[in-house]
TrEMBL record:
Species for this entry: Castellaniella ginsengisoli
InterPro entries listed in its UniProt record: ABC1_dom (IPR004147), Kinase-like_dom_sf (IPR011009), Prot_kinase_dom (IPR000719), UbiB (IPR010232), UbiB_bact (IPR045308), UbiB_kinase (IPR050154)
Name of this chain's protein: Ubiquinone biosynthesis regulatory protein kinase UbiB
Domain Protein kinase residues, every copy: 119-456
Coiled coil feature spans: none
Family annotation (PROSITE patterns): PROTEIN_KINASE_DOM (PS50011)
Gene name of the encoded protein: ubiB
Transmembrane segments annotated in the record for this chain: 496-515
Pfam families in the cross-refs: ABC1
């Protein structure tokens, strides 16, 4: 009942903000235009379509705001006016009252903001779908940003997730590709990441890990700045970190005026993404422009700044190797290897003909090579690959959904910074170097170093284990005898069953004969 009421509320909000008119106006079909004329009779929308969509998403809650944030980065798929309006969702969601923020800080940190901090700005500097941020100064003079979780978030998210689970179940049962797409697994993955984002201690830990991955001793500090966590002022609903100053990555005009090399910035953004994914297996998975800034400090001018660590992704060694080999095969136009990888990974049925899958992938990808980013829509490539995958029953991998979303964010930011960026050529050298480190002598030495501690414990035990195994009685004859006994018992059961079936058949025949002749008398 609650799910039905929530669905009815969503429909009411859609009609209230005239999203029916927005949807119908985007469908190129005669019946859609006819229906649009009917629904528009007597009531023209008073607000622009982008504003109506933004307000509807804000009203519906955090899940829908997240959806709008992703759409705002895809200016190749969304009209300019809608993308500009949805960009306001990145850090200008209406804030909740400052008194509530102060109450949450007092409840979880044990004192009022006025006592905890030397200075605390009551008005939030940024307000997003999950939390809002206040600037403050510690008693030792350090400037910090205090992130406070919105009240009532867990209940709101649970309500919408219940609806998504119900819809996923319907899709799985009714849609032709329902089982292959694994909608329930995808919703479960989304559920996990949303609940992780509600725990600000987990977010602080993510921030600390990412900062360590780009620390001074890694050789990557020139690429990305990550704020330091102030652990004494962190709790499940309060997260305090070093205050960072910079310019949003979407404000290209301001960056140029500061003297930032925009093409270099775009290439470094792609490198940072692939470095997090393939080197660390730990990546910032909410990379919309509201969370990515560029330093305007003269000492670190042009360096990326990462904010908001509520959603991060992680990949296993198998996933990293599989993805890296797929990317390299794509970049080299080795479509046969792409087909082999899909079959080896079990993503397609083992009966799939390799040459047929190779030809289908070639038909999708070949037209997109040797083009600048401005002429490539990764969304269209993914859509065509999805259409092709239906033919070969490719299973959607829920653990990679977050990576796909982040890749779309990265593409959207790269398109805004430098439309001429060649995404393929920027990523290819990095992946080739990564693969060389993994499969070459250097990679072998690294893996030996990683396993050395385990070998030190296992190697001394090998002689004793080998001796015990060699002296263990051979269980083969006993197992064969037991299997033979079971086979004979099965044969006896089959013969008995056959006799019983014969007796039953004769009895039924006699009964039918008796009834037939009895009726004749």
């Amino acid at each position: 009942m609650l799910t039905f009421l929530r669905l009815a509320y969503i429909l009411w909000i859609s009609l209230r903000y005239r999203l029916d008119e927005l949807v119908l106006s985007g469908i190129q079909h005669p019946w859609a235009h006819a229906l649009l004329k009917i629904v528009c009779l007597g009531r023209r929308p008073r607000r622009a379509r982008g504003e109506r969509l933004r307000l509807a998403l804000e009203t519906l809650g955090p899940i829908y705001v997240k959806f709008g944030q992703v759409l705002s980065t895809r200016r190749d798929l969304v009209p300019q006016d809608i993308a500009d309006e949805l960009a306001r969702l990145q850090d200008r969601v209406p804030p909740f009252p400052s008194d509530q923020a102060a109450d949450i800080i007092r409840e979880f940190l044990g004192d009022t903001p006025q006592n905890l901090f030397a200075a605390f700005e009551r008005d939030p500097v940024a307000s997003a779908s999950i939390a809002q941020v206040h600037f403050a100064v510690l008693h030792d003079g350090r400037e910090v940003a205090v992130k406070v979780l919105r009240p009532g978030m867990r209940e709101a998210i649970e309500r919408d997730l219940t609806l998504l689970r119900a819809l996923a179940g319907l899709v799985e049962r009714l849609a032709p590709d329902g089982r292959r797409l694994k909608p329930r697994e995808v919703v479960a993955e989304f559920d996990k990441y949303l609940h992780d984002e509600l725990d600000l201690i987990r977010e602080a830990a993510n921030c600390s890990q990412l900062r360590r991955n780009f620390g001074p001793d890694t050789g990557r500090a020139h690429l990305l700045r990550v704020p330091e966590v102030v652990w004494e002022y962190c709790a499940s609903q309060v997260f305090t970190m070093e205050r960072m100053r910079g310019v949003p990555v979407s404000q290209v005009g301001r960056l140029r005026a500061l003297g930032v090399d925009i093409p270099l910035l775009a290439r470094q953004g792609v490198e940072i993404f692939f470095m997090q994914v393939f080197t660390d297996g730990f990546f910032h998975a909410d990379m919309h422009p509201g969370n990515i800034y560029v330093s305007d400090d003269p000492e670190s001018l042009g360096r990326y700044i990462a904010l908001d660590f509520g959603i991060v992704g992680s990949l296993s060694e198998f996933d990293k190797n599989y993805l890296a080999q797929n990317f390299l095969a794509f970049f080299r136009r080795d479509y046969r290897r792409v087909a082999q990888l899909h079959i080896e990974s079990g993503w397609v049925p083992p009966t799939t003909r390799e040459e047929e899958l190779e030809g289908a992938v070639r038909a999708v990808c070949e037209p997109y090579f040797d083009r600048p980013l401005s002429e490539i829509s990764l969304g269209q490539v993914l859509l065509r690959l999805f259409q092709t995958s239906r033919r070969f029953n490719v299973e959607i991998q829920p653990q990679l959904v977050l990576l796909q979303k982040t890749l779309l964010n990265v593409e959207g930011m790269g398109r805004e910074l430098d439309p001429n960026l060649d995404l393929w050529q920027t990523a290819k050298p990095f992946l080739e170097k990564w693969m060389h480190q993994r499969v070459g002598l250097r990679g072998l030495r690294q893996r030996l170093d990683q396993e050395a501690s385990q070998w030190a414990q296992i190697l001394p035990q090998i002689p004793r284990l080998a001796y015990a195994r060699l002296n263990h009685p051979d269980a083969g004859p006993a197992m064969r005898a037991e299997l033979e006994r079971l086979r004979r018992a099965q044969d006896r059961s089959n013969r008995l069953l056959a006799v019983l079936c014969g007796i039953l058949a004769v009895g039924l025949g006699v009964a039918v004969w008796a009834l037939t002749h009895g009726g004749g008398l």
